[in-house]
Amino acid sequence: MAGRTESVLEERRRLGGWLPRKEAELIAFRKDLAKKARERAALGPRTSAVQELAMLIDGDPVLRMDLSRAITDAIEAGYELGYSSSEELMDIVDYLMTYAPRFSEASLIHCPLNAVLDWPMCMPSGYALFRDPVVNAKLRQVLNVWSGFLDGPHSRSYLNSSAPEGWLSPEAQEQLGLSQFVCDPDKPYWGFESWNSFFTRRFLPDARPVAEPENSKIIVSACEASPYNIQHDVELRDRFWIKSQPYSLEEMFTARERGLARQFVGGSVYQAFLSAFNYHRWHAPVSGRIVKAYHVDGSYYSEAESEGVDPGGLNDSQGYTTAVAARAVIVIDCDDPAIGLVGCIFVGMADVASCVVEALPGQQVAKGDELGYFQYGGSTYCLVFRPDVVQSFAASPPFDDEAPPIKVSAHVATAR
């Protein structure tokens, strides 16, 4: 099976730098994590949220079967997981509740839980398990616990200038472009109160100027993100689970907002993904009034079977995630009536990926104003336009995933 595994990995790529591209590095990480998790498990009980997830799966024969089969199938397919049972997996998840990410030039692992689940989640039983709403509700509780740790001072273990793992080391500074961000090298931890504070760092004033702020026809990028897909003539309901993953507006906005979704039928969707090294705040693509702002509960590790085995976790399922994953939806009624409503959908993919909405209904925003942010974890976003609004997009397929991302507040589309 090793030959098959190597062949699959050679054909598929991991986008955004959330996980290393070399499977050998992930194998070493998972084995080291499993060793540390076993040592931690011997010292005391699990975190309550992790134990509740374990009890849910252990107490439900279908869920227990799905997870056990997903693990077994992945191992039999030749993937080295570092664990062979749900009990061992739960110990690893528990250990990760106090895990602080380390910088690495060669093998950065930004999403450790995604690295642990990488192969079981794309086995036949894994597809079913990670779509289960009760499992996702428990996963949300687990991820909230980790987010609480990342919000606190104990998460700053690697916010230092020591190479090779410090996020403030010269190597990291260059890769992150830290000179563009608000920070103070003379303060402890450069002024960052927690890992999440560092992750959601802000640009210095004027580091990202807004493209033609007075020209309503110039629509700007809501995130610092690389283009992933553009689709026109989107439908209210479509088969988002098939190979092409067409956008399904009713699922994106949710059935309770069917009236809102109908206004975009026949329109265009622009989707882009964020890198692990990039800025993670969202900004208004147009000037106007916020008319909707809401969260949607959803999945965290659900993939589309149509994409086959995906080594990057959710790389190739990004269209699909807009319909099923946890996300935030913000709709702006543009001051330019020819543009009208613009939907902004910010999707959390893997690990914490908390979506924090700052701009609320009734608020007037100018193009480039902050709307909210991702609080760690992989992420992707969409801009949704009504029919005949967009004349052209600044980027066009095929997209080069090695190219620099489109800067936040830079020109991304031109309206008619």
Automatic annotation (TrEMBL):
The keyword Transcription does not apply. Keywords: Decarboxylase, Lyase, Pyruvate, Zymogen. It comes from the Bacteria. Residues 49-176 form the L-tryptophan decarboxylase PsiD-like domain. Signal peptide: none annotated. Coiled coil: none annotated. InterPro entries: PS_Dcarbxylase, PsiD-like. PANTHER family: PHOSPHATIDYLSERINE DECARBOXYLASE (PTHR10067), PHOSPHATIDYLSERINE DECARBOXYLASE FAMILY PROTEIN (AFU_ORTHOLOGUE AFUA_7G01730) (PTHR10067:SF9). This is Phosphatidylserine decarboxylase family protein. It comes from Paraburkholderia dipogonis.
